[in-house]
Design a protein that fits this description.
Blueprint lengths: L1 E2 L9 E2 L12 H13 L7 E5 L5 H8 L4 E6 L2 H18 L5 E5 L2 H5 L7 E6 L7 H11 L3 E12 L11 E9 L2 E8 L8
C-alpha cells in the first residue's frame, strides 16, 4: 500500500493495483517530486492530468496538496477500480466529490480528443516497457495542450534515454533518484499556448 504524503489528505493509505504490470512511484521519489512542484507553485488550484495512472497515487497526492481538478487516465480495468477507490478516499478527506475524475481508456486515445485540456501539470509515469517511440507519440499529443507556465513530468527508468521532446515542449530539468529519473518539460517559448 502507498500513502498520501502531505496536504489535506496527508497520511491516508491508498490501495495498490493487484498483480503485475504497474510500477508504483516510491514514497521517496513522490516526496521529492511534490516538494519541487510545490516550491514552483504548481499545485494550488491546478488542473492536473495523471497519465498511465496505475493506482492514481500521483494524482491523488496532487489533489491533497491543492489541485482544483485531477483527471486519472488508465487503461487496465483492475487499475481503474483501484483509481476509483482511491479517488473516493481523497473525496471523503477533502469533503468534495468532484476533485478527482477517472477515465478508462488508452492515454493516446484520451489525448486525441481535442476537447480535453489544457492543463497546468501533466504527470506521466508510463510502464517501463513502453517504448521510446510510444512515449514520443504521447508527448507529441501533449504539445500545445499546456497552459502558460505548465509543466510535464515524465518518470522513467534511469536506464532509459531522455524522452524525445516534440516541437512545442522543451526539457528544462531532470532529477535522478537511484533507478528512477524524472524529466521536467515546459511549453517551448516559440510555440503558442492555449489560454
Amino acid at each position: 500500500m502507498s500513502r498520501i504524503i502531505a496536504g489535506a489528505a496527508g497520511g491516508l493509505r491508498l490501495q495498490s493495483v493487484p498483480g503485475q504490470g504497474t510500477r508504483p512511484t516510491t514514497d521517496r521519489v513522490k516526496e521529492s517530486l511534490f516538494a519541487r512542484l510545490q516550491a514552483w507553485g504548481m499545485l494550488d488550484d491546478a488542473r492536473v492530468l495523471d497519465l498511465f495512472a496505475g493506482s492514481g497515487a500521483l494524482g491523488c497526492e496532487a489533489a491533497s496538496r491543492g489541485a482544483a481538478a485531477v483527471t486519472l487516465v488508465e487503461r487496465h480495468a483492475p487499475a481503474v477500480r483501484v483509481c476509483r477507490a482511491n479517488a473516493a478516499v481523497v473525496h471523503r478527506a477533502l469533503g468534495r466529490d468532484d476533485v478527482v475524475q477517472v477515465r478508462q481508456g488508452s492515454v493516446n486515445g484520451y489525448l486525441a480528443d481535442p476537447a480535453v485540456g489544457p492543463w497546468d501539470l501533466v504527470l506521466a509515469d508510463p510502464p517501463y516497457p513502453l517504448t521510446e517511440a510510444e512515449l514520443a507519440e504521447t508527448l507529441a499529443l501533449l504539445a500545445g495542450r499546456l497552459r502558460e507556465g505548465g509543466v510535464v513530468v515524465v518518470e522513467r527508468s534511469s536506464r532509459s534515454p531522455e524522452p524525445r521532446w516534440p516541437a512545442g515542449l522543451r526539457r528544462f530539468e531532470h532529477k535522478r533518484h537511484g533507478e528512477t529519473v524524472t524529466w521536467f518539460a515546459e511549453p517551448d517559448a516559440t510555440e503558442p499556448t492555449p489560454d
